[in-house]
User: Which sequence fits this backbone?
Protein backbone atom coordinates (compact mmCIF):
# COMPACT_ATOMS: atom_id res chain seq x y z
CA UNK A 1 0.00 0.00 0.00
CA UNK A 2 1.44 3.44 -0.83
CA UNK A 3 0.25 6.99 -0.22
CA UNK A 4 -1.30 7.41 -3.68
CA UNK A 5 -3.47 4.27 -3.45
CA UNK A 6 -4.85 4.30 0.09
CA UNK A 7 -6.67 1.24 1.33
CA UNK A 8 -10.42 1.93 1.08
CA UNK A 9 -10.62 1.47 4.85
CA UNK A 10 -8.38 4.49 5.31
CA UNK A 11 -10.94 7.15 6.08
CA UNK A 12 -9.98 10.46 7.73
CA UNK A 13 -11.56 11.54 10.99
CA UNK A 14 -13.62 14.32 9.35
CA UNK A 15 -15.13 11.86 6.87
CA UNK A 16 -16.16 9.62 9.75
CA UNK A 17 -17.73 12.39 11.80
CA UNK A 18 -19.65 13.52 8.71
CA UNK A 19 -21.67 10.30 8.99
CA UNK A 20 -23.07 11.24 12.42
CA UNK A 21 -26.15 13.29 13.23
CA UNK A 22 -26.45 14.79 16.75
CA UNK A 23 -28.51 12.56 19.04
CA UNK A 24 -31.21 14.28 21.09
CA UNK A 25 -33.00 11.56 23.06
CA UNK A 26 -33.41 7.83 23.53
CA UNK A 27 -35.48 7.46 20.40
CA UNK A 28 -32.95 9.20 18.16
CA UNK A 29 -30.17 7.16 19.78
CA UNK A 30 -31.96 3.93 18.80
CA UNK A 31 -32.40 5.26 15.26
CA UNK A 32 -28.68 6.13 15.11
CA UNK A 33 -27.85 2.42 15.43
CA UNK A 34 -30.07 1.31 12.54
CA UNK A 35 -28.64 0.26 9.18
CA UNK A 36 -24.99 0.33 10.26
CA UNK A 37 -24.05 -2.87 8.39
CA UNK A 38 -22.14 -4.25 11.39
CA UNK A 39 -21.08 -7.90 11.42
CA UNK A 40 -22.70 -9.57 14.43
CA UNK A 41 -23.01 -13.25 15.30
CA UNK A 42 -25.52 -14.59 17.80
CA UNK A 43 -26.47 -18.27 18.25
CA UNK A 44 -24.40 -19.22 15.22
CA UNK A 45 -26.20 -16.84 12.88
CA UNK A 46 -25.43 -13.45 11.41
CA UNK A 47 -27.82 -10.83 12.75
CA UNK A 48 -29.26 -8.62 10.01
CA UNK A 49 -30.44 -5.71 12.17
CA UNK A 50 -29.32 -5.86 15.82
CA UNK A 51 -31.70 -3.03 16.82
CA UNK A 52 -34.72 -5.26 16.16
CA UNK A 53 -33.34 -8.48 17.65
CA UNK A 54 -35.35 -9.44 20.77
CA UNK A 55 -32.26 -10.59 22.68
CA UNK A 56 -30.24 -7.47 21.82
CA UNK A 57 -32.93 -4.80 22.08
CA UNK A 58 -33.19 -4.65 25.92
CA UNK A 59 -29.50 -3.70 26.05
CA UNK A 60 -30.12 -0.89 23.57
CA UNK A 61 -33.11 0.27 25.63
CA UNK A 62 -30.88 0.58 28.70
CA UNK A 63 -28.48 2.89 26.86
CA UNK A 64 -31.38 4.84 25.38
CA UNK A 65 -32.47 5.56 28.94
CA UNK A 66 -29.19 7.44 29.58
CA UNK A 67 -30.38 9.92 26.93
CA UNK A 68 -33.89 10.11 28.33
CA UNK A 69 -32.62 10.78 31.84
CA UNK A 70 -30.67 13.75 30.48
CA UNK A 71 -33.90 15.15 29.02
CA UNK A 72 -35.99 14.44 32.14
CA UNK A 73 -33.44 15.49 34.78
CA UNK A 74 -30.83 17.77 33.20
CA UNK A 75 -29.46 18.89 36.54
CA UNK A 76 -28.47 15.32 37.35
CA UNK A 77 -27.55 13.98 33.92
CA UNK A 78 -26.08 16.92 32.01
CA UNK A 79 -23.22 19.31 32.72
CA UNK A 80 -21.80 22.46 31.13
CA UNK A 81 -18.93 21.71 28.77
CA UNK A 82 -16.15 24.27 28.60
CA UNK A 83 -15.01 22.59 25.39
CA UNK A 84 -18.08 23.35 23.30
CA UNK A 85 -19.67 26.01 25.52
CA UNK A 86 -22.94 24.11 25.90
CA UNK A 87 -24.62 21.55 28.15
CA UNK A 88 -23.63 17.95 27.38
CA UNK A 89 -24.73 14.55 28.57
CA UNK A 90 -22.85 13.83 31.80
CA UNK A 91 -21.64 10.56 30.28
CA UNK A 92 -19.54 12.73 27.92
CA UNK A 93 -18.47 15.37 30.41
CA UNK A 94 -14.83 16.03 31.31
CA UNK A 95 -14.77 16.21 35.10
CA UNK A 96 -13.66 19.63 36.28
CA UNK A 97 -14.19 19.28 40.03
CA UNK A 98 -14.87 16.79 42.83
CA UNK A 99 -18.52 17.87 42.61
CA UNK A 100 -18.62 16.67 39.00
CA UNK A 101 -17.56 13.22 40.21
CA UNK A 102 -20.15 13.28 43.01
CA UNK A 103 -22.86 14.12 40.47
CA UNK A 104 -21.59 11.40 38.16
CA UNK A 105 -21.93 8.84 40.98
CA UNK A 106 -25.43 10.05 41.82
CA UNK A 107 -26.43 9.77 38.17
CA UNK A 108 -25.01 6.22 38.02
CA UNK A 109 -27.05 5.18 41.06
CA UNK A 110 -30.17 6.71 39.49
CA UNK A 111 -29.56 4.84 36.23
CA UNK A 112 -29.25 1.58 38.19
CA UNK A 113 -32.59 2.27 39.86
CA UNK A 114 -34.26 3.01 36.50
CA UNK A 115 -32.94 0.04 34.55
CA UNK A 116 -32.05 -2.70 37.08
CA UNK A 117 -29.16 -3.67 34.82
CA UNK A 118 -25.80 -2.57 33.44
CA UNK A 119 -26.59 0.51 31.33
CA UNK A 120 -23.19 0.12 29.65
CA UNK A 121 -21.95 3.70 29.55
CA UNK A 122 -19.61 4.00 32.54
CA UNK A 123 -16.50 2.36 31.09
CA UNK A 124 -16.62 4.76 28.12
CA UNK A 125 -17.00 7.75 30.43
CA UNK A 126 -14.05 6.60 32.53
CA UNK A 127 -11.99 6.12 29.37
CA UNK A 128 -12.70 9.68 28.34
CA UNK A 129 -11.58 10.81 31.79
CA UNK A 130 -8.30 8.92 31.87
CA UNK A 131 -7.32 9.95 28.34
CA UNK A 132 -7.42 13.62 29.30
CA UNK A 133 -4.48 13.28 31.67
CA UNK A 134 -2.58 10.44 29.97
CA UNK A 135 -2.43 12.16 26.57
CA UNK A 136 -1.27 15.33 28.33
CA UNK A 137 1.46 13.48 30.21
CA UNK A 138 2.71 11.59 27.14
CA UNK A 139 2.93 14.85 25.19
CA UNK A 140 5.01 16.45 27.94
CA UNK A 141 7.46 13.57 27.95
CA UNK A 142 7.65 12.84 24.20
CA UNK A 143 6.59 16.08 22.48
CA UNK A 144 3.64 14.35 20.79
CA UNK A 145 0.27 15.97 20.03
CA UNK A 146 -2.11 13.43 21.50
CA UNK A 147 -3.84 15.82 23.90
CA UNK A 148 -5.00 18.15 21.12
CA UNK A 149 -6.22 15.11 19.13
CA UNK A 150 -8.11 14.00 22.24
CA UNK A 151 -9.71 17.45 22.68
CA UNK A 152 -10.69 17.53 18.98
CA UNK A 153 -12.29 14.10 19.33
CA UNK A 154 -14.13 15.15 22.47
CA UNK A 155 -15.54 18.29 20.82
CA UNK A 156 -17.10 16.14 18.10
CA UNK A 157 -18.19 13.49 20.60
CA UNK A 158 -19.97 16.06 22.76
CA UNK A 159 -21.53 17.96 19.87
CA UNK A 160 -22.84 14.74 18.30
CA UNK A 161 -23.82 13.28 21.69
CA UNK A 162 -22.40 9.84 20.87
CA UNK A 163 -21.51 6.78 22.94
CA UNK A 164 -17.94 5.58 23.47
CA UNK A 165 -17.37 1.94 24.46
CA UNK A 166 -14.23 0.84 26.31
CA UNK A 167 -12.13 -1.94 24.84
CA UNK A 168 -9.48 -2.59 27.43
CA UNK A 169 -9.55 -6.30 28.27
CA UNK A 170 -7.62 -8.49 25.82
CA UNK A 171 -8.31 -12.24 25.61
CA UNK A 172 -4.84 -12.58 27.26
CA UNK A 173 -4.15 -16.24 26.40
CA UNK A 174 -1.65 -17.70 28.88
CA UNK A 175 -1.93 -15.47 31.95
CA UNK A 176 1.66 -16.22 32.99
CA UNK A 177 3.04 -14.67 29.79
CA UNK A 178 3.43 -11.07 28.64
CA UNK A 179 1.78 -9.89 25.38
CA UNK A 180 4.94 -10.32 23.29
CA UNK A 181 5.53 -13.80 24.75
CA UNK A 182 2.16 -15.29 23.72
CA UNK A 183 2.12 -18.17 21.23
CA UNK A 184 -0.38 -16.17 19.14
CA UNK A 185 0.47 -12.44 18.96
CA UNK A 186 -3.20 -11.56 18.45
CA UNK A 187 -4.17 -12.61 21.99
CA UNK A 188 -3.37 -9.02 22.93
CA UNK A 189 -4.32 -6.18 20.59
CA UNK A 190 -1.37 -4.75 18.70
CA UNK A 191 -0.42 -2.52 15.77
CA UNK A 192 -0.19 -4.70 12.67
CA UNK A 193 1.11 -1.96 10.33
CA UNK A 194 1.50 1.77 9.98
CA UNK A 195 0.78 3.89 6.89
CA UNK A 196 1.01 7.59 6.06
CA UNK A 197 -2.62 8.06 7.08
CA UNK A 198 -2.68 6.03 10.29
CA UNK A 199 -2.20 2.58 11.74
CA UNK A 200 -3.94 -0.79 11.72
CA UNK A 201 -4.78 -2.83 14.82
CA UNK A 202 -5.23 -6.55 15.08
CA UNK A 203 -6.54 -8.73 17.92
CA UNK A 204 -9.70 -8.73 20.00
CA UNK A 205 -11.28 -7.14 23.03
CA UNK A 206 -13.18 -9.47 25.32
CA UNK A 207 -16.33 -9.04 27.43
CA UNK A 208 -16.92 -5.61 25.94
CA UNK A 209 -19.90 -3.98 27.60
CA UNK A 210 -22.23 -2.32 25.11
CA UNK A 211 -19.59 -2.48 22.35
CA UNK A 212 -22.18 -3.20 19.70
CA UNK A 213 -24.35 -0.35 21.00
CA UNK A 214 -21.53 2.21 20.85
CA UNK A 215 -20.75 4.66 18.06
CA UNK A 216 -17.03 4.58 18.86
CA UNK A 217 -14.83 2.05 20.62
CA UNK A 218 -11.69 3.18 22.38
CA UNK A 219 -9.03 0.46 22.33
CA UNK A 220 -6.33 0.67 24.98
CA UNK A 221 -3.81 -1.58 26.76
CA UNK A 222 -5.00 -3.79 29.59
CA UNK A 223 -1.77 -4.09 31.62
CA UNK A 224 1.71 -2.71 32.17
CA UNK A 225 3.98 -3.16 29.15
CA UNK A 226 7.72 -3.41 28.57
CA UNK A 227 9.95 -2.42 25.63
CA UNK A 228 9.29 -5.75 23.86
CA UNK A 229 5.55 -4.98 24.00
CA UNK A 230 5.72 -1.55 22.34
CA UNK A 231 3.43 -2.55 19.44
CA UNK A 232 0.84 -3.43 22.10
CA UNK A 233 1.00 0.11 23.50
CA UNK A 234 -1.75 1.54 21.34
CA UNK A 235 -4.74 3.72 22.14
CA UNK A 236 -7.17 4.71 19.42
CA UNK A 237 -10.76 5.56 18.61
CA UNK A 238 -12.49 3.16 16.23
CA UNK A 239 -16.00 3.72 14.80
CA UNK A 240 -18.35 0.94 15.91
CA UNK A 241 -19.10 0.14 12.27
CA UNK A 242 -15.48 0.17 11.04
CA UNK A 243 -14.52 -2.29 8.35
CA UNK A 244 -12.78 -5.32 9.82
CA UNK A 245 -14.81 -5.42 13.06
CA UNK A 246 -16.77 -8.53 14.04
CA UNK A 247 -18.96 -8.78 17.15
CA UNK A 248 -19.74 -12.18 18.67
CA UNK A 249 -22.53 -11.86 21.22
CA UNK A 250 -22.06 -13.24 24.73
CA UNK A 251 -24.69 -15.57 26.17
CA UNK A 252 -26.46 -14.60 29.33
CA UNK A 253 -28.29 -16.93 31.67
CA UNK A 254 -31.94 -17.35 30.57
CA UNK A 255 -31.34 -15.16 27.49
CA UNK A 256 -33.72 -17.20 25.30
CA UNK A 257 -36.64 -16.12 27.46
CA UNK A 258 -36.46 -12.92 25.40
CA UNK A 259 -37.62 -15.03 22.44
CA UNK A 260 -40.72 -16.30 24.27
CA UNK A 261 -44.18 -14.82 24.12
CA UNK A 262 -45.33 -12.73 27.08
CA UNK A 263 -43.23 -10.55 29.33
CA UNK A 264 -43.62 -11.85 32.91
CA UNK A 265 -41.08 -14.68 32.73
CA UNK A 266 -38.43 -12.24 31.41
CA UNK A 267 -38.35 -10.62 34.84
CA UNK A 268 -37.20 -7.29 33.40
CA UNK A 269 -38.58 -7.28 29.88
CA UNK A 270 -37.43 -3.80 28.96
CA UNK A 271 -33.79 -3.61 30.05
CA UNK A 272 -30.70 -5.81 29.84
CA UNK A 273 -26.93 -5.62 29.59
CA UNK A 274 -24.66 -6.69 26.78
CA UNK A 275 -21.16 -8.10 26.39
CA UNK A 276 -19.52 -9.11 23.13
CA UNK A 277 -16.19 -10.39 21.91
CA UNK A 278 -15.08 -7.72 19.46
CA UNK A 279 -12.59 -8.91 16.86
CA UNK A 280 -10.36 -6.41 15.06
CA UNK A 281 -9.14 -7.87 11.79
CA UNK A 282 -6.68 -5.17 10.71
CA UNK A 283 -8.89 -2.22 11.59
CA UNK A 284 -7.65 1.20 10.49
CA UNK A 285 -7.28 4.18 12.85
CA UNK A 286 -6.37 7.54 11.27
CA UNK A 287 -3.57 9.44 13.03
CA UNK A 288 -6.08 12.03 14.28
CA UNK A 289 -7.63 9.27 16.40
CA UNK A 290 -4.42 7.64 17.63
CA UNK A 291 -3.72 8.67 21.23
CA UNK A 292 -0.81 6.34 22.08
CA UNK A 293 1.58 4.77 19.63
CA UNK A 294 4.34 2.77 21.28
CA UNK A 295 4.78 4.78 24.53
CA UNK A 296 4.65 1.55 26.53
CA UNK A 297 5.87 3.11 29.78
CA UNK A 298 2.52 4.93 30.14
CA UNK A 299 0.39 1.78 29.97
CA UNK A 300 0.64 0.97 33.67
CA UNK A 301 -0.28 4.49 34.79
CA UNK A 302 -3.11 4.56 32.31
CA UNK A 303 -4.57 1.34 33.71
CA UNK A 304 -4.12 2.59 37.29
CA UNK A 305 -5.88 5.91 36.61
CA UNK A 306 -8.62 4.21 34.59
CA UNK A 307 -9.34 1.89 37.48
CA UNK A 308 -9.45 4.79 39.94
CA UNK A 309 -12.32 6.22 37.95
CA UNK A 310 -13.90 2.94 36.98
CA UNK A 311 -13.83 1.14 40.31
CA UNK A 312 -15.79 4.01 41.87
CA UNK A 313 -18.20 3.83 38.94
CA UNK A 314 -19.34 0.52 40.38
CA UNK A 315 -21.49 2.73 42.60
CA UNK A 316 -24.04 2.02 39.84
CA UNK A 317 -24.65 -1.30 41.60
CA UNK A 318 -26.20 0.59 44.52
CA UNK A 319 -29.01 1.57 42.16
CA UNK A 320 -29.53 -2.11 41.40
CA UNK A 321 -29.23 -2.76 45.15
CA UNK A 322 -32.07 -0.27 45.72
CA UNK A 323 -34.19 -2.33 43.33
CA UNK A 324 -33.23 -5.52 45.20
CA UNK A 325 -34.17 -4.03 48.58
CA UNK A 326 -37.47 -2.85 47.10
CA UNK A 327 -38.18 -6.23 45.49
CA UNK A 328 -37.39 -8.10 48.72
CA UNK A 329 -39.63 -5.76 50.75
CA UNK A 330 -42.44 -6.07 48.19
CA UNK A 331 -42.36 -9.86 48.01
CA UNK A 332 -42.31 -10.11 51.81
CA UNK A 333 -45.43 -7.93 51.84
CA UNK A 334 -47.14 -9.98 49.09
CA UNK A 335 -46.31 -13.13 51.09
CA UNK A 336 -47.73 -11.63 54.28
CA UNK A 337 -44.38 -11.81 56.10
CA UNK A 338 -43.40 -8.14 56.10
CA UNK A 339 -44.13 -7.51 59.79
CA UNK A 340 -41.79 -10.24 61.03
CA UNK A 341 -38.80 -8.77 62.86
CA UNK A 342 -36.24 -10.92 61.03
CA UNK A 343 -37.64 -9.71 57.71
CA UNK A 344 -37.18 -6.08 58.74
CA UNK A 345 -33.72 -6.93 59.98
CA UNK A 346 -32.77 -8.53 56.68
CA UNK A 347 -33.92 -5.43 54.81
CA UNK A 348 -31.79 -3.35 57.18
CA UNK A 349 -28.80 -5.60 56.48
CA UNK A 350 -29.32 -5.30 52.71
CA UNK A 351 -29.55 -1.52 53.01
CA UNK A 352 -26.47 -1.32 55.22
CA UNK A 353 -24.41 -3.25 52.68
CA UNK A 354 -25.74 -1.19 49.80
CA UNK A 355 -25.05 2.13 51.51
CA UNK A 356 -21.56 0.96 52.47
CA UNK A 357 -20.80 0.63 48.75
CA UNK A 358 -22.26 4.06 48.12
CA UNK A 359 -20.28 5.69 50.90
CA UNK A 360 -16.91 4.46 49.62
CA UNK A 361 -17.69 5.66 46.08
CA UNK A 362 -19.01 9.04 47.09
CA UNK A 363 -16.11 9.58 49.51
CA UNK A 364 -13.72 8.71 46.69
CA UNK A 365 -15.34 11.42 44.56
CA UNK A 366 -15.23 14.04 47.36
CA UNK A 367 -11.53 13.27 47.91
CA UNK A 368 -10.71 13.76 44.20
CA UNK A 369 -7.54 15.69 43.37
CA UNK A 370 -6.59 17.61 40.21
CA UNK A 371 -4.03 16.16 37.81
CA UNK A 372 -1.60 18.29 35.82
CA UNK A 373 -3.84 18.26 32.74
CA UNK A 374 -6.53 19.99 34.83
CA UNK A 375 -8.92 17.05 35.16
CA UNK A 376 -9.89 15.66 38.57
CA UNK A 377 -9.36 12.04 39.58
CA UNK A 378 -11.06 10.02 42.33
CA UNK A 379 -9.16 8.96 45.40
CA UNK A 380 -7.61 5.66 44.33
CA UNK A 381 -7.69 3.88 47.69
CA UNK A 382 -11.37 4.60 48.27
CA UNK A 383 -12.25 3.67 44.67
CA UNK A 384 -10.56 0.31 45.15
CA UNK A 385 -12.34 -0.19 48.46
CA UNK A 386 -15.64 0.61 46.71
CA UNK A 387 -15.02 -1.95 43.97
CA UNK A 388 -13.82 -4.52 46.50
CA UNK A 389 -17.06 -4.07 48.44
CA UNK A 390 -18.89 -4.56 45.17
CA UNK A 391 -17.17 -7.92 44.60
CA UNK A 392 -18.92 -9.16 47.78
CA UNK A 393 -21.96 -7.24 48.94
CA UNK A 394 -24.31 -7.74 45.95
CA UNK A 395 -23.92 -11.50 46.51
CA UNK A 396 -25.04 -11.17 50.12
CA UNK A 397 -27.84 -8.75 49.16
CA UNK A 398 -28.98 -11.30 46.55
CA UNK A 399 -28.85 -14.13 49.09
CA UNK A 400 -31.07 -12.17 51.45
CA UNK A 401 -33.51 -11.28 48.65
CA UNK A 402 -33.74 -14.96 47.71
CA UNK A 403 -34.28 -15.82 51.37
CA UNK A 404 -37.25 -13.45 51.60
CA UNK A 405 -38.63 -14.47 48.20
CA UNK A 406 -39.12 -18.11 49.15
CA UNK A 407 -38.53 -21.17 46.97
CA UNK A 408 -41.25 -20.20 44.53
CA UNK A 409 -38.70 -17.91 42.91
CA UNK A 410 -37.16 -20.99 41.27
CA UNK A 411 -40.15 -23.36 41.10
CA UNK A 412 -42.81 -21.04 39.69
CA UNK A 413 -44.46 -22.43 36.52
CA UNK A 414 -44.32 -20.47 33.29
CA UNK A 415 -46.48 -17.55 32.25
CA UNK A 416 -47.97 -19.83 29.57
CA UNK A 417 -49.20 -22.20 32.30
CA UNK A 418 -50.84 -19.30 34.12
CA UNK A 419 -52.70 -18.52 30.89
CA UNK A 420 -53.78 -22.12 30.26
CA UNK A 421 -57.53 -22.87 30.54
CA UNK A 422 -57.04 -25.73 33.00
CA UNK A 423 -53.67 -25.06 34.65
CA UNK A 424 -54.16 -21.28 34.99
CA UNK A 425 -57.04 -21.29 37.54
CA UNK A 426 -55.24 -23.99 39.58
CA UNK A 427 -52.06 -21.92 39.70
CA UNK A 428 -53.90 -18.75 40.64
CA UNK A 429 -55.67 -20.62 43.47
CA UNK A 430 -52.56 -22.18 44.96
CA UNK A 431 -50.16 -19.30 44.40
CA UNK A 432 -52.33 -16.66 46.04
CA UNK A 433 -50.39 -14.98 48.84
CA UNK A 434 -51.94 -12.10 50.80
CA UNK A 435 -55.59 -12.02 49.65
CA UNK A 436 -55.61 -8.40 48.44
CA UNK A 437 -52.50 -8.80 46.23
CA UNK A 438 -53.07 -10.10 42.69
CA UNK A 439 -51.22 -13.35 42.00
CA UNK A 440 -49.69 -11.72 38.94
CA UNK A 441 -47.91 -9.15 41.15
CA UNK A 442 -46.32 -12.01 43.07
CA UNK A 443 -45.31 -13.69 39.81
CA UNK A 444 -43.73 -10.51 38.47
CA UNK A 445 -41.80 -9.72 41.66
CA UNK A 446 -40.43 -13.26 41.92
CA UNK A 447 -39.33 -13.14 38.28
CA UNK A 448 -37.59 -9.80 38.84
CA UNK A 449 -35.58 -11.25 41.74
CA UNK A 450 -34.80 -14.32 39.65
CA UNK A 451 -33.72 -12.08 36.75
CA UNK A 452 -31.29 -10.09 38.91
CA UNK A 453 -29.86 -12.94 40.94
CA UNK A 454 -29.90 -15.90 38.51
CA UNK A 455 -31.05 -14.63 35.14
CA UNK A 456 -29.92 -12.16 32.50
CA UNK A 457 -29.32 -9.23 34.81
CA UNK A 458 -27.32 -11.32 37.27
CA UNK A 459 -24.53 -10.78 34.75
CA UNK A 460 -24.65 -7.08 35.55
CA UNK A 461 -25.50 -7.33 39.23
CA UNK A 462 -23.24 -10.23 40.26
CA UNK A 463 -20.52 -11.44 37.89
CA UNK A 464 -19.75 -8.01 36.47
CA UNK A 465 -19.50 -6.84 40.09
CA UNK A 466 -16.90 -9.55 40.65
CA UNK A 467 -14.74 -9.24 37.52
CA UNK A 468 -15.60 -5.95 35.84
CA UNK A 469 -12.87 -3.29 36.33
CA UNK A 470 -10.62 -6.14 37.44
CA UNK A 471 -11.08 -9.28 39.52
CA UNK A 472 -10.87 -8.95 43.35
CA UNK A 473 -7.13 -9.59 43.47
CA UNK A 474 -6.53 -6.55 41.26
CA UNK A 475 -8.06 -4.34 43.96
CA UNK A 476 -6.09 -6.05 46.71
CA UNK A 477 -2.86 -5.31 44.82
CA UNK A 478 -3.78 -1.62 44.58
CA UNK A 479 -4.79 -1.50 48.24
CA UNK A 480 -1.45 -3.12 49.15
CA UNK A 481 0.41 -0.51 47.08
CA UNK A 482 -1.42 2.40 48.67
CA UNK A 483 -1.93 1.30 52.27
CA UNK A 484 1.22 3.03 53.61
CA UNK A 485 1.85 0.39 56.21
CA UNK A 486 5.26 1.82 57.19
CA UNK A 487 3.68 5.15 58.12
CA UNK A 488 1.07 3.27 60.16
CA UNK A 489 3.74 1.26 61.95
CA UNK A 490 5.26 4.59 62.87
CA UNK A 491 2.05 5.71 64.57
CA UNK A 492 1.93 2.48 66.55
CA UNK A 493 5.60 2.59 67.50
CA UNK A 494 5.27 6.18 68.65
CA UNK A 495 2.32 5.36 70.94
CA UNK A 496 3.80 2.10 72.18
CA UNK A 497 6.99 3.93 73.10
CA UNK A 498 9.04 1.52 70.98
CA UNK A 499 10.83 4.34 69.22
CA UNK A 500 11.19 4.68 65.48
CA UNK A 501 12.95 1.76 63.84
CA UNK A 502 15.39 3.84 61.77
CA UNK A 503 16.65 0.88 59.79
CA UNK A 504 13.14 0.09 58.56
CA UNK A 505 12.13 3.74 58.20
CA UNK A 506 15.18 4.36 56.01
C1 LIG B 1 -19.94 -8.55 32.75
C2 LIG B 1 -18.58 -8.04 32.43
C3 LIG B 1 -18.44 -6.84 31.72
C4 LIG B 1 -17.17 -6.38 31.35
N1 LIG B 1 -17.05 -5.23 30.62
C5 LIG B 1 -15.84 -4.85 30.14
C6 LIG B 1 -15.69 -3.72 29.27
O1 LIG B 1 -16.64 -3.02 28.95
N2 LIG B 1 -14.47 -3.43 28.79
C7 LIG B 1 -13.39 -4.14 29.12
O2 LIG B 1 -12.31 -3.81 28.66
N3 LIG B 1 -13.47 -5.20 29.97
C8 LIG B 1 -14.67 -5.58 30.47
N4 LIG B 1 -14.77 -6.65 31.32
C9 LIG B 1 -13.58 -7.43 31.59
C10 LIG B 1 -13.05 -7.40 33.01
O3 LIG B 1 -12.28 -6.27 33.24
C11 LIG B 1 -12.27 -8.72 33.18
O4 LIG B 1 -13.24 -9.76 33.24
C12 LIG B 1 -11.38 -8.75 34.38
O5 LIG B 1 -10.32 -7.84 34.23
C13 LIG B 1 -10.82 -10.16 34.62
O6 LIG B 1 -10.21 -10.63 33.45
P1 LIG B 1 -10.61 -12.05 32.87
O7 LIG B 1 -12.08 -12.11 32.75
O8 LIG B 1 -9.80 -12.26 31.65
O9 LIG B 1 -10.23 -13.09 33.98
P2 LIG B 1 -8.79 -13.65 34.32
O10 LIG B 1 -7.76 -12.58 34.10
O11 LIG B 1 -8.59 -14.94 33.64
O12 LIG B 1 -8.93 -13.88 35.89
C14 LIG B 1 -9.47 -15.08 36.45
C15 LIG B 1 -8.78 -15.32 37.79
O13 LIG B 1 -7.39 -15.55 37.55
C16 LIG B 1 -6.60 -14.65 38.32
N5 LIG B 1 -5.43 -14.28 37.48
C17 LIG B 1 -5.44 -13.80 36.21
N6 LIG B 1 -4.19 -13.56 35.78
C18 LIG B 1 -3.38 -13.91 36.78
C19 LIG B 1 -1.96 -13.89 36.93
N7 LIG B 1 -1.15 -13.48 35.96
N8 LIG B 1 -1.46 -14.29 38.14
C20 LIG B 1 -2.27 -14.69 39.12
N9 LIG B 1 -3.61 -14.74 39.05
C21 LIG B 1 -4.17 -14.35 37.87
C22 LIG B 1 -7.50 -13.44 38.60
O14 LIG B 1 -7.13 -12.76 39.79
C23 LIG B 1 -8.86 -14.13 38.75
O15 LIG B 1 -9.05 -14.62 40.05
C24 LIG B 1 -16.03 -7.11 31.74
C25 LIG B 1 -16.18 -8.30 32.46
C26 LIG B 1 -17.42 -8.77 32.80
C27 LIG B 1 -17.54 -10.07 33.56
Assistant:
Amino acid sequence: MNATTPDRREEFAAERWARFRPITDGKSYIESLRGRAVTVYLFGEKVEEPVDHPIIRPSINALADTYDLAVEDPELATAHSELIGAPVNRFLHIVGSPQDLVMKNRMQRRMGQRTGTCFQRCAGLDTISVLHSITYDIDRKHGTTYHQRYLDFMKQAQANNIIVGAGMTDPKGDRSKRPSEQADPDLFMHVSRRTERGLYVRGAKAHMTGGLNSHWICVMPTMNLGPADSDYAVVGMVPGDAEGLTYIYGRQSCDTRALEKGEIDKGNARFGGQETLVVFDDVFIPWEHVLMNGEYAFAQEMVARFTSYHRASYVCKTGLGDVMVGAAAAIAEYNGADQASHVKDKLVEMTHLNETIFSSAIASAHEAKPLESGIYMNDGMLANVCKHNVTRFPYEISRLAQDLAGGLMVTLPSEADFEHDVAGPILRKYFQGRANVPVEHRQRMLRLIENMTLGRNAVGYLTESLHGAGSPQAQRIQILRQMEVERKKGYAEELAGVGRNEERAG
Observations:
- The pocket of flavin-adenine dinucleotide is lined by residues 123, 166-169, 172, 175-176, 205, 207-209, 275, 459, 463-464, 467-471, 473 (CB under 6 Å).
- Residues 341-366 form the longest helix (26 residues).
